[in-house]
Amino acid sequence: MTRPPTTPLLELRDVGKDYGSVTALDGISTTVRAGEVTCVLGDNGAGKSTLIKVLSGVHRPDRGRLLLDGEPVTFGSPREALDAGIATVFQDLAMIPLMAVWRNFFLGAEPTKGWGPFRRFDAGRAKDVTRRELAAMGIDIRDPDQPVGTLSGGERQSVAIARAVHFGARVLILDEPTSALGVKQAGVVLRYVAQARDRGVGVVLITHNPHHAHPVGDRFLVLNRGRSLGEFAKADIGRDELIRLMAGGAELDALAHELERPGG
Amino acid sequence: MVVFAFFAVQSETFRSPRGIANWLDPASTLGIMAVAVALLMIGGHFDLSAGVLVGTTALTVGVVATQLRQNLWVAIGVALLLALAIGFVNGWLVTRTGLPSFIITLATFLMLQGLNLGLTKLFTGTVTVGGIDDVPGYAAAEWVFASRVGVLGAEVRVAVLWWLLFTALATWVLLRTRFGNWVFATGGDDVAARNVGVPARRTTIALFMTTAGAAWFVGTTLAVRLTSVQANTGIGQELIYIVAAVIGGCLLTGGFGSAIGASLGALIFGMTQLGIPYLRWDADWFYFFLGAMLLLAVLTNRLVRRYAEAARR
Ligand SMILES: Nc1ncnc2c1ncn2[C@@H]1O[C@H](COP(=O)(O)OP(=O)(O)OP(=O)(O)O)[C@@H](O)[C@H]1O
Ligand SMILES: [Mg+2]
Question: How far, CA to CA in Å, does B58 sit from each of A104, A154, B132, B219, B220?
């Protein structure tokens, strides 16, 4: 199958980002295309979250350029990225523990009714949509008025994902979205990713699980200490090779050897 | 309720309509400030300059009206602009520097305290500004800020009605508008709020300006009601506002609280302040009582936070 050569939704060119004297990213180039899933892989501290924070407007790159629809952009804030249709599930979920589930769901994008000084938060609609979107994910929230802080880790992650899917019109970015999820919910999330891709949304997925990454990913960007180890199309890389790359190649073989029972 | 019952049972005057009107009076001006301070605390910040700013605005009204010979409404307008500007500077410095608002507004507090005294002396040669009732526009201003209205056979000051109105308005804004949602979010976790697109900076600045606006309202009320203003007006009140908000359920860490709670806090305060003399107790007991209420309130608030947060972490 060949795709027509379209302009990527988002493109990074030689992007670098420093935290003080720590270089978290250096010389990273990649593209996010409509209807494709780009997986970002790498060890802890490799710079994956930093990369998505550049894409989602939290950080401005110190070097290199960010292009939206082929035009250079600088996102001054996550709001500007959201307005461009880029929604993100952050690794820390970006939710307010003391606030109700439905308030968190629509935080920053509250639906309103009425006009002028009487314009107000349409709470009824917000609660309905929240319940519907969560039910569609297979999460049964007893009471959308309950504070997010009282949800389980997996439930909280599901709320954050449902929120991003609801608002991510063009690009959906997920930073380890399945780390706290059970097998069933993780499956639902992967199905969501596939559905979003089929709708023409560009997806960026970060995960430590190659069994999740390989089936849905179209392209794999492997990071190591802020640098790219290369970007591979799915056709060019098998699952086993992917696992080896993610775990640092030869190190895994050594580990497997070490863990084997002596004399087993 | 308990506080009311306590004093009402022991003092006839306390529960009479006139008595109620009496203790509603200090509760009202304090309540207007406590509501604004509660919004700011829910948004995650303190304003130590709120008390002295009441004095600054009252003095500005007095000086502009009597020394610069302007219509009283012009003076009130100037004071409003000044208050909003100071609120803006507070908010802007806090969001720009990321320093604790405690420190920033402590600095504003000290500077305003000095300016209040220095400029009052400069203009009047004394530490009071008087004669505000001789200025054109006084009658209308008195009607708005300092008249009395008959309610259920007792005369209450109009500030009580304003207080109720502001409490209702603040409650509606907090619970039913986008801005209210942003206030809770900014106070709960400003990084997370910003990451999902909440304009946290603007929200914080607006909250500081709201507090300053409330200080202007109360300052104007005092200037018009008393017709003369002392240069040290309002100093020391800032902590009382915070105490009222905390008694009303605001968390010191932000992200939780209510306007009605702050109003109840102010009400308790007003009852205690006037109830203790009614019982012919020494006024010193007032502060003991207040401290005990505060302690009780923070212990209760801690439980609220535990329930919502520590359960899963
Ligand atoms: N706000 C920050 N200030 C300073 N250093 C930071 C900050 N955020 C990240 N870093 C550093 O940047 C590097 C990359 O961090 P990043 O969070 O992007 O890693 P990651 O690949 O997402 O790791 P993980 O798999 O654990 O989520 C790390 O060395 C980290 O210590
Ligand atoms: Mg990360």
Answer: 41, 54, 10, 4, 5
Question: Helix axis angle, B200-226 relative to B138-146, nearest 10°?
Answer: 110
pLDDT at A264: 46
Compute the distance between CA of residue B141 and CA of residue B137 in angstroms, rounded to an integer. 6
Query: Rounded to 5 degrees, what angle do the CA atoms B107, B262, B255 make?
Result: 70
Please compute the mean of the pLDDT values over residues B267-284 and round it to a whole number: 77
CATH 1.10.3470 fits B10-305, yes or no: yes
For chain B, the average pLDDT equals 87
Q: How many domains does chain A have?
A: 1
Atom of ligand 1 nearest to the CA of A48: 21
The pLDDT value given to residue B11: 61
User: Ligand 2 center to residue B242 CA distance, Å?
Assistant: 39
Chunked into runs of 10 residues, chain A (264 residues) has average pLDDT values of 68 93 92 92 89 93 92 91 92 90 93 84 92 84 85 86 87 88 83 87 88 88 88 83 69 68 61
Q: Of B58, B56, B38, B54, give the one whose Cα is nearest residue B46.
A: B38
Residues of B in contact with A49 (CB under 8 A): none
Where is B293: in which H helix or E strand?
helix B284-305
Cβ–Cβ < 8 Å for B79, B60: yes
Please check whether residue A2 lies inside any domain of the structure.
Answer: no
Report the alpha-carbon distance of residue A224 to residue A240 in Å, rounded.
18
Q: Which of B52, B223, B228 lies closest to B131 in space, CA to CA?
A: B228
- Ligand 1 atom at shortest distance from the alpha carbon of A208: 25
What H or E segment, with its residue span, contains residue A49?
Answer: helix A48-55
What is this structure's pTM?
0.89
Closest CA to B200 of A118, A97, A107, A51: A107
Residue type, A259: L
Measured CA to CA, the distance from residue B28 to residue B34 in angstroms comes to 9
Per the CB < 8 Å rule, is A99 touching B199?
A: no
Residue B135, both tokens: 């200025």
Q: Please state, in angstroms and rounded to a whole number, the distance separating the CA atoms of residues A167 and A176.
A: 18
Distance CA B85, CA B89 (A): 6
What residue spans define the domains of chain B?
A: 10-305
- Smallest CA-to-CA distance from B248 within B61, B3, B69, B11 is with B3
Chains A and B: how many Cβ contacts under 8 Å? 97
Q: How many CB atoms lie within 10 A of CB A253?
A: 11
> Could you tell me the CATH number of the domain that includes residue A150?
3.40.50.300
> How many CB atoms within 10 Å of residue A258?
7
Domain containing residue A201: 10-259
Torsion over CA: A77, A117, B145, B153 (sign): negative
CA distance B243 to B266: 9
Evaluate whether residue A123 is within a structural domain: yes
> What does the alpha-carbon distance between residue A220 and residue A236 come to, in Å, rounded to a whole number?
10
Q: Residue B39 corresponds to which amino acid? A: L
